Amino acid sequence: DGGADGAGMQARVFEAALRLLAPDGVCIVETSDHLSDATLAAAVAAGLSAHVETDDDIDAVVVVARR
User: Fold this and answer.
1) Which of 33, 40, 56, 63 has fewest C-beta within 10 Å?
2) Which H or E run includes 67?
3) 2-58 pLDDT tens trace
4) Alpha-carbon span 22 to 31, nearest angstrom
5) If DSSP states are collapsed to H, E and C, what string results for 1-66?
6) CA distance 67 to 17
7) What is the distance between the alpha carbons of residues 40 and 37, in angstroms, rounded to a whole number?
C-alpha cells in the first residue's frame, strides 16, 4: 500500500535501511518520476541523506540514500 502520498512502501524500506546499513552504507530504491519527490522525502524523514538520480536512456528514476 502506497499510503496517502504513494510512497508508503518506500518509507518502510528506508526505515529498515537506517537500522540495517553500516555507516556510509547505501540504499537505492527505484521509483517513478511522479513519486520521486515523495520517495526522496521518505528517505530524509527516515534519517538518511538522499538524492534522486535519473537515466533517460532506460527511463529509470531512483533515490539513492546514504546512512
Assistant:
1) 56
2) none
3) 677 778 899 999 999 999 999 999 999 999 999 999 999 999 999 999 999 999 999
4) 23
5) CCCCCCCHHHHHHHHHHHHHCCCCCEEEEEECHHHHHHHHHHHHHCCCEEEEEEECCCCEEEEEEE
6) 8
7) 5
φ, ψ (nearest 5 deg) of residue 48 = -105, 155
Only one residue has cell 537515466, namely 55
Say what the pLDDT of residue 62 is. 98
**pLDDT on residue 1:** 63
For the beta sheet containing 49-55, the strands, ordered from the edge strand earlier in sequence to the opposite edge, are 26-31, 60-66, 49-55
Whether the model pTM is above 0.85: yes
Which residue carries 527511463 as its cell? 59
